[in-house]
Structure formats: C-alpha cells, structure tokens
Amino acid sequence: MRPRLALLAIAAFAVAASAAFAAGCGGSDNSSSTAAGSTTTAAQGGGGGSSVDVRETEFKLNPSDPTVKAGQVTFNVSNDGQVVHSLEVEGPNGDQKLGSDLSPGQKGLLSVDLSKPGKYEFYCPVDSHKQMGMQGEITVQ
Q1: At residue 6, does pLDDT exceed 80?
Q2: Domain ranges of the chain
Q3: Is 7 helix (H, G, I), strand (E, B) or coil?
Q4: In terms of Cα–Cα distance, which of 10, 14, 44, 40 is closest to 28?
Q5: 104 preceded by cis ω (within 30°)?
Q6: 88 - beta bridge partners?
Q7: What is the pTM of this model?
Q8: Does a cis peptide bond (omega within 30 degrees of 0) precede residue 59?
C-alpha cells in the first residue's frame, strides 16, 4: 500500500507544480509557441509528411511503436494522464521535444524531420517517466 501512497503524493505534487508553473510561466529560450494550451515546435526538414496521434498516460505512450513514411512527421500529442508529460524524439538530426510540458488534458504538436529511414526512440522526458515505461520506437520507412 505504501508505494501507492507515494505515487499519489507524487501525482498531487506534479499537479500543484504544473498549476503554479502555468500561472507564472514566462518566455522561452527556444523557437516554440504556446497558444490556448497547445504547444507547437517546428523542425526543419524536407519531403513527405505524415502524422501520428500519441496519447500519453501513466506511464505509457500509445502507440509505442508507430511506423511512418520518411519525411516531416507531426506528432499530435495528448496528455490523457493525471500528471505532467511531454514528448521527445531522437531523430537523425538530433533530439526534438515539445516546447513546454503538457498538463493533464493539454495537447501539443511536435514536428520532426524523420527523412532518413530507420528506427528512432521517442519518450516522455519528464522526471523518470522514460524509465517507468513511457518510451517507444518509431520505424521510418
């Protein structure tokens, strides 16, 4: 029962911290923009184009193993969980992540250049969510 109480305490802290962050949030040092609870981060790339809807919950990504065509890929991210989440993709041109974390119920867009076929890791970079299972592998054809 004790681990469950610890998880509830962590979740309560995360919700309180995200509310405080949202209330006092200032500018950002990257090229993303936030409007009405959505985050958009653009990465340069060329050719093709597809999108993947990613649902984040505690502590998994759905789908965790999408297959996409090579090119610019847009991840439509939805935090369907109870704590703050985000998304990071390790693509062929380096790591790309959402411009800001997503509070429960928020959605965001992440556009990544996946123009080289292969397999790439994606995960939630918040705290130890990746180690708790919020990770997957994107197959680019």
Answers
A1: no
A2: 33-140
A3: helix
A4: 40
A5: no
A6: 97, 123
A7: 0.67
A8: yes
- Among residues 28, 37, 49, 43, the alpha carbon closest in space to that of 99 is found at 28
pLDDT tens digits for range 38-79? 333 333 334 457 999 999 999 999 999 999 999 999 999 999
DSSP bridge partners of 123: 88, 135
C-alpha span between 123 and 65 (Å, rounded): 11
pLDDT digits (tens, 9 = 90+) for 85-133: 999 999 999 999 999 999 999 999 999 999 999 999 999 999 999 999 9
> For residue 17, which phi and psi values (nearest 5 degrees)?
-65, -40
The answer as to CATH 2.60.40.420 being correct for domain 33-140 is: yes
Q: Which amino acid is at 124?
A: C
Identify the CA nearest to 111 among candidates 89, 126, 129: 89
